């Protein structure tokens, strides 16, 4: 067991504090993947992480705090939306990334989503993460407009992105089906065809 977490204001971000955080969050992910959110406990996380449970309680307070930090950590990862030169290519590449991430640790993904229904803290953090990710990906649609791939009428970027990516979550998370190597491209192409037909166009109302 290690000693309690250093909480001094001048602690080094990349030092011992960061190392302990990484150990604990890795333990949370492993516990979720193995036991689901129902089996996630502060004691179990502390034991797996090899830190004193007082450290975990002081830093994260409760299971909700652990879940929030795991979700926050996902948002801290340096990531940029794909830029392949076409809307179809960008959405396909995005879907391939999503599919790969869900295949690597499907039980963790399912458990984390389930946990958001039992923790208000986790639900808020997860909503913010998704909001930020979709906002970050709106550049894919903006580039497509600049290239003339979409109608001149303004496009609801978020609706298009949701339509393109939703089949992956439906197949792998809701149905828990085997990954289909062709699904990322098919889902992207369907969304592109719908967008080209104006399905996601924002229709402006005329003032009275």
Automatic annotation (TrEMBL):
UniProt keyword annotation of Zinc-finger present: no
Positions of the DNA-binding region: 41-60
SUPFAM superfamilies (UniProt xref): Homeodomain-like, Tetracyclin repressor-like, C-terminal domain
UniProt-listed Pfam families: TetR_C_11 (PF16859), TetR_N (PF00440)
Record keywords: DNA-binding, Transcription, Transcription regulation
Tagged with keyword DNA-binding: yes
InterPro entries linked: Homeodomain-like_sf (IPR009057), HTH-type_TetR-like_transc_reg (IPR050109), HTH_TetR (IPR001647), Tet_transcr_reg_TetR-rel_C_sf (IPR036271), TetR_C (IPR011075)
Domain HTH tetR-type: 18-78
PANTHER family referenced in this protein's UniProt entry, alphabetically: HTH-TYPE TRANSCRIPTIONAL REGULATOR RUTR, TETR-FAMILY TRANSCRIPTIONAL REGULATOR
Record protein name field: TetR/AcrR family transcriptional regulator
Species, as recorded: Streptomyces exfoliatus
